[in-house]
Amino acid sequence: MKGHTGGIYDLTKLKNGLLASCSNDKTIRLWDTDTLQQVQLLKGHTNEVTTIKELPENILVSGSYDQTIKLWNLNNGYVSTTIDIGDDVESLIPINKVELAVGCKGGDIKVYDLTTKKKTFTLEGHTSYVNDLILTEDKITLFSGSSDKTIRAWSLGNKECIWTVNRVGMRLFEFTWKSTCKIFGYTGTLRYIAIRPI
Length: 198
Hints:
Layout: E1 8-13, E2 19-23, E3 27-32, E4 37-43, E5 49-55, E6 59-64, E7 68-73, E8 78-84, E9 89-94, E10 99-104, E11 109-113, E12 118-123, E13 130-135, E14 141-146, E15 151-155, E16 160-165, E17 174-177, E18 183-186, E19 192-195
Antiparallel strand pairs: 1-2, 2-3, 3-4, 5-6, 6-7, 7-8, 9-10, 10-11, 11-12, 13-14, 14-15, 15-16, 17-18, 18-19
């Protein structure tokens, strides 16, 4: 699968079976996983594209170091919405049909209403890159992992941090919410940590 001219930051499998990738070459590409051929090229960001997520109605949302998020209509490949975040975007997670949480390089998690294009609230606490966001199935609690070596759990109802795990060890780039209600944090040392539910 050749196409990107720079490093790949994120991959996501789409409901239509295609694979989407984003890169520091400022592009998003869609791939047929059977033929391994590129089927669509999305260009519009002016800096590295760091994260992508699928939304309903064949929409893809992307975040970039150009400090914007963009909503792409995959039916025609055009940008339908651009929102200025005011910070480099590191991670994204849809909360519901209209709200999107955006993890930023400066440490904030900003929540936007995609219909009004307005920020509804900000979760403050991290002091460095918010590299990953995970939402529980009940959509009540948001977990964040950061380069400040912490994991935080946030109540979306109260809009506040409800607990923090400090000194994870190294910068935390990715973690996964399991059905057993544990979080397994992946650190630079390949060490796993398990946290019991609240």
